[in-house]
């Protein structure tokens, strides 16, 4: 499907959903929330936080159960959702990985275009972090070391299409250096590998490592943001350090299976909008240093199309082979 046609289809579907009455649907059994990461991974943690907030705020009369479909860096989760066509009690947490993975795998049978957009929720910035006893005080010093000894430094991350992985590739491409990438299943594993000295750098979200920074176990050496983070004002951005790379923040939001009725989409859209107005949500946003960027279903399709264009460009710039 060509991009303009895809955008038009997304918008038409979402607009129809918004126009429908959400009163025509109410969940009557447990709701499944699908994530592509393993327990302890970013999407799994986020989904469990959402489920806890929903329970605390009493927004749903039915349980919200997390289902982990971890194979293929979102390909299994995408396929699982497609198989749930028309299921009004199944949702999924999407991230940029859901956009990027189908661009890199010839065996990927589905993309986010095959699913039904519901809502965008947050954008998450990333930072580069080393151990506190590391000799590297800046990303520039880390790059210099990588230049002196190609492949000897190690970065832990998720799949090759995860934001931290792509960000590391972009830095290497822009600086003309190379280090070794080690894929790990969860942020806890990445943190453990860094603290134990098995790897030299990780590129997490700030909330994942704040306690380690505060305790003096880790040192942030760059922020992958347009401007310095309010929670880490002393940490210069990657561009302030003379490395020009695209700034990509991880988006998290909600998709539904294909063929879901408009009134169901309208219900879930309004449900998540209500969640973003709660005290629990506002506390989550503040404590985790994420951007609250709620977007209704009518805007999610065009947003994902734009992300597809951006991720294709980023992958190519990072030297990753992109499927045609």
Structural write-up:
By secondary structure, this protein is α/β, with parallel strands linked by helices. Helices cover 42% and strands 19% of the residues. The chain has eleven helices and eleven strands. Strands 2-1-3-10-4-11 form a six-stranded mixed beta sheet. A three-stranded parallel beta sheet has the order 7-6-8. Strands 5-9 form a two-stranded antiparallel ribbon. α1 runs antiparallel to α11. The two termini are 13 Å apart. About 3% of the residues have low confidence.
Which helices and strands appear, and what pairs or packs with what?
Layout: H1 3-19, E1 31-35, H2 42-56, E2 64-68, H3 75-83, E3 90-94, H4 96-104, E4 116-124, E5 126-131, H5 139-148, E6 154-157, H6 163-175, E7 180-183, H7 187-195, E8 201-202, H8 206-214, E9 218-224, E10 250-256, H9 262-275, H10 279-288, E11 291-296, H11 297-317
Distinctive features:
324 residues, six-stranded mixed sheet, 11 helices, 42% helix, globular
Strand order of the largest sheet: 2-1-3-10-4-11
Principal-axis shape: globular
Strand content: 15-25%
Please give the number of β-strands: 11
Give the C-alpha Rg.
20 Å
Write a compact overview of the structure shown:
The chain has 11 helices and 11 strands.
């Amino acid at each position: 499907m060509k991009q303009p046609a895809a955008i038009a289809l997304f918008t038409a579907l979402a607009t129809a959903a918004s126009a429908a009455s959400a009163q025509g649907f109410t969940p009557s059994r447990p709701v499944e929330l699908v994530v592509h990461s393993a327990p302890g991974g970013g999407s799994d943690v986020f989904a469990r936080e959402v489920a806890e907030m929903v329970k605390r705020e009493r927004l749903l009369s039915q349980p919200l159960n997390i289902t982990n479909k971890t194979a293929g860096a979102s390909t299994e989760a995408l396929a699982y959702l497609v198989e749930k066509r028309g299921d009004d009690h199944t949702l999924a947490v999407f991230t940029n990985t859901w956009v990027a993975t189908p661009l890199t795998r010839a065996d990927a049978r589905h993309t986010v275009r095959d699913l039904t957009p519901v809502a965008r929720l947050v954008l998450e910035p990333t930072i580069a972090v080393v151990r506190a006893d590391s000799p590297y005080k800046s990303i520039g010093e880390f790059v210099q070391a990588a230049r002196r000894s190609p492949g000897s430094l190690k970065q832990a991350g998720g799949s090759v299409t995860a934001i931290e992985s792509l960000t590391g590739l972009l830095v290497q491409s822009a600086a003309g250096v190379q280090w070794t990438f080690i894929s790990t299943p969860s942020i806890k594993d990445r943190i453990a590998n860094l603290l134990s000295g098995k790897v030299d750098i990780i590129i997490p979200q700030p909330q994942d490592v704040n306690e380690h920074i505060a305790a003096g176990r880790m040192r942030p050496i760059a922020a992958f943001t347009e401007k310095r983070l309010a929670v880490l004002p002393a940490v210069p951005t990657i561009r302030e350090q003379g490395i020009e790379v695209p700034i990509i923040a991880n988006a998290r939001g909600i998709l539904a299976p294909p063929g879901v009725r408009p009134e169901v989409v309208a219900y879930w859209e309004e449900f998540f909008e209500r969640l973003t107005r709660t005290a629990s949500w506002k506390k989550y946003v503040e404590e985790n240093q994420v951007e609250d960027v709620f977007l209704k279903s009518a805007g999610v399709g065009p947003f994902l199309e734009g992300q597809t264009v951006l991720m294709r460009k980023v992958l190519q710039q990072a030297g990753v082979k992109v499927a045609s």
